[in-house]
Amino acid sequence: MNQLGNWATVRLIAGREIKVRLASRAYRVLTIVMVVIVVGLCVALKLFAGASSGTHVGYLPADAAIARELPAVGTSIGQQITVQPVTDQATGEQQVSAGTLDALLVGNGQQINVVVQKNIDKNLGDALNVLARQAALDQQITRLGGDPATVLTQAAGASAHVTPLQAPYPYQTQQLILGIIAGVLIYISLMLNGQFVAQGVVEEKSSRVVELLLATIRPWQLMAGKVAGIGLVGLIQILVIGAAGVAAGLATKVLTVSVSAAVGTVAWLIVWYLLGFFMYAVVFAGLGALVSRQEDIGGATAPALVFLVIGYVLSISILPSDPSNHLVEVLSILPMFAPTAMPMRLAMGGVPPWEAIVSVGLVVALIPLLIWLAARIYRNAVLRTGARVKLRQALRAA
Amino acid sequence: MSTAGLEIDKVSKRYGDVVALRDMTFEVRPGELFGFVGSNGAGKTTTMRIALGVLAADAGQVRWAGEPITLETRRHIGYMPEERGLYPRMKVAEQLVYLARLHGMTTKAATRSVQTWLERLGVAARRDDEVQKLSLGNQQRVQLAAALVHDPSILVLDEPFSGLDPVAVDVMSQVLLEKCADGVPTVFSSHQLDLVERLCDRVGIVRDGEMVACGRIDELRAGGTERLVIDAPAAPPDWAADLPGVTAHTHEGHRTVLELRPGTDDQTVLRAALATGPVREFARRRPSLTELFRNVVNEQGVTA
């Protein structure tokens, strides 16, 4: 009989985990569903973006002068507006009803009257209000004996001078979306694969096979093999989903950020998935060993889950509207929240390099400590079937 | 080479205030089948778990071939835990190959060995079924295969016969005897004392975490009282009451069971019996292991 080295043993155990996971229907279905969601999201964004490419406004001959200025005003507030002449009001209103026109100008060249189907598009309303105010101003200036054109040029030239002490990061909507997707993906992965580790530990405990295993191998080998196997399977999943997402985003041209930025996001995602997984998985393995029934896993892993959930919920609810939020900035450096908060920030961009390095460093430093702690709990609790083992007992017992 | 077997030397273990094992000592020599008997909670399972390194002893040592047992030597033990356990959702053959490989076998050797044992134990037809789909009896056979599949050089089996049907008991007994013939020291615990008596070379009786009797069954019997069973249908009920050396007599149907003082001449008894009429049966009854067990356990209970 051959000698079986430590790592050969761990590889053998990991191999079994991988085989079992890859063969499970739940795993394959979940991966496919996630790929479909990510690709579907890209397609949906594409369709949505195509539909709202601009606003079409019709105008009667009397409003030709106003209509001529409308596109320029629209551009200044970031709204694409196209105009087209309409022969008479009835035809125009028909087109508004049919949806080919978003609005119809029916004024007399002085006042701005607009007909819409139901509600006016907010940006179009703003643009028209600007024009209305300007028309009113022009009239007043002319009445006071001034030249509206001169006043306008002067006014346009005047603006407040802003001196930023810290250059703000120009966040792009695209990167924000990328960040949200990265956050959701990593959260689901950590949550699921972490739970799989706990379930796997409890399965061995409840089926009592663990005694047979531990008569041949050491507890740490069993724990390490399980964590490595499930982690690898999770990594394959996140790689498939990430690659499908980036490919779909670039193919549909929804993602106009450079390929390197997109790949960078995926690379960071993988780094943080691995860090987050190893950090949480060993803790879940230790906590899972405390209980003997699948129903009790939730309760046993709750203390660790809380950190995962808090990090995720705060990041996903704050970052999209406020990417440079201070609270999340702090959270993303703390090891227990970093795996969910940091990848989102990294995808959104504007993270100072030192923050990225420190957060990775802290997690890397914490992992050996957690492994030591979890291995101790695991070793002491995994053979005690029956009632839930108290955490303090598991830590103390030699 | 008598000391080259599995030695349990003064192993002690306590859980808080409860003493589970106190100086547990015995030895299983190569090629010897050792029966481990005792009431529930006497410490049999704890001893076996310590021998397998699943549990740590507070004091004492477990040795194999004169050397303290290590993880490497444990790989050569075939173990059947009291709490049966296999992965419920893993296929029978796949699982056994996996377990054999954990014990250091190559995939090829493991696959071959698994097939052999599944056939031997009569579950070859179920090799590609999930363990949880098997009947309890068949799961038990697979469990036994798990203990044997890596060709162990020591066998430690906790209650290997419980839950087996008579056919499986025969197969199991056969396997144990064969392994012994190959020189594998085997220790197993059981409550089926007739089986232990039939199979084992030596037995150990444990009580409250201590070995109270250990040796060959005829050695253990040596101290016991001698009994005679006589079937003399025509004899009056108290025919043997006044015979010299008879200390007690009881009736089992029309048989009379006599207890004799050591050194009493049984031929005197036979003559007395013949004097009453025909004698259909005249036999020495050696105390069974069950009786020895009861005696040992009760004696100790009184003196403790």
Task: Describe the protein.
In chain A, helix 7 (173-206) packs antiparallel against helix 9, helix 9 packs antiparallel against helix 10 and helix 10 (259-288) runs antiparallel to helix 13 (338-348). In chain A, a hairpin with an 8-residue loop joins strand 3 (103-105) and strand 4 (114-116). Chain A is elongated and about 100 Å long. In chain A, 70% of the residues lie in helices and 4% in strands. Chain A is built from 15 helices and 4 strands. Chain A has 398 residues and is mostly helical. A 4-stranded mixed beta sheet of chain A has the order 2-1-3-4, sandwiched between helices. Chain B is α/β, with parallel strands linked by helices. Helix content of chain B is 34%, strand content 28%. Chain B is built from 10 helices and 14 strands. Chain B has helices at residues 44-51, 71-74, 92-102, 107-120, 136-148, 166-181, 193-199, 217-222, 266-275, 289-303, and strands at 6-15, 18-28, 33-38, 59-64, 67-68, 77-80, 154-158, 186-189, 202-207, 210-216, 226-231, 246-252, 255-260, 281-285. In chain B, a hairpin with a 2-residue loop joins strand 12 (246-252) and strand 13 (255-260). In chain B, helix 3 packs across helix 4. Chain B is elongated, with a radius of gyration of 24 Å. The two termini of chain B are 37 Å apart. The mean pLDDT of chain B is 86. The interface between A and B is medium-sized, with 26 and 33 residues.
